[in-house]
Amino acid sequence: MPQLHIETPYVESHTLSQKLNKNIWLKLDALQPCGSFKARGMAAACQDFVAKGATSFVSSSGGNAGLAVAWAGRLLKVPVTVVVPESTKQRAKDLIAAEGAKVIVHGESWVEAHGLATQMAQDGGALLHPFENPVTWAGHATIVAEMAQQGAKPDAVVLSVGGGGLLIGVAQGLDNVGWSDVPILAVETEGAASLHGSRIANNHITLDKITTIATTLGAKQVSPTAWELVKSGRATTQLVTDAQTVAACAGFLDDHRILVEPACGAALAAVLNESDFLADKQTIAVIVCGGAGITLDQLNRWNSEFSSLAEKQTY
Q: Which is it for strands 184-189 and 235-240: parallel, antiparallel or unpaired?
């Protein structure tokens, strides 16, 4: 089957490069048809299931993975049901439904939503896990295959982490193109730091709850494979605040005219706030993973809320 995702630009950001006195390259997967990098891995998994005889899909998602499955299902003419947690933004739910998928809201977090999706799949339908599938990882690895053809080899790759599928795919992609020496900075927001918390505890932890506005990063526990990448030193972690992610999203919209959600803004925030890990790195690639669960109005409200909070904390 032909691939469903599109090749996206990998370009140097003159604006960010000037601000930081470094060479900042952007892999713009926010431009995928469904709005995020999930188009790669989830579509690949959908095609794999169809080749094996699947006639319907069930997905659990915080938003973007479910939207990618709904989009792929429409193109493949396969019915889709997506189970999302209560924290999923209405915008994301509307976009999933607009692709023709059935949307079910269940549970406080993705864990509960995934539990219901798993039960539903037992009655028929292929279960599309948002981040635990080698086929999905291979789909995400195409990001790096494109980068190797399009532009500079980076000294580091910066990306956001939810469940860890993107991290795993990028690590595999770097190996595939002979860039295994390129380190990865995996960024989470405070309130969704299951990978960073695991690194600090030196143990694969599970969070009690998700408390960040970056709800699509809301996996209480990352993939064991993602944890092994950090445990082995192949990748390291960084924390940013919700306020920093919102500021990064607003700045990115001003500089590059692309609206991304806080889950994506986390990676941008680590770069803009000059992470210590990047201090000796001159050429830095940022995976602009996108995210469809945001509107300009929502970003402006968050910006106003965090600005007001900062002003109050000054006194």
A: parallel
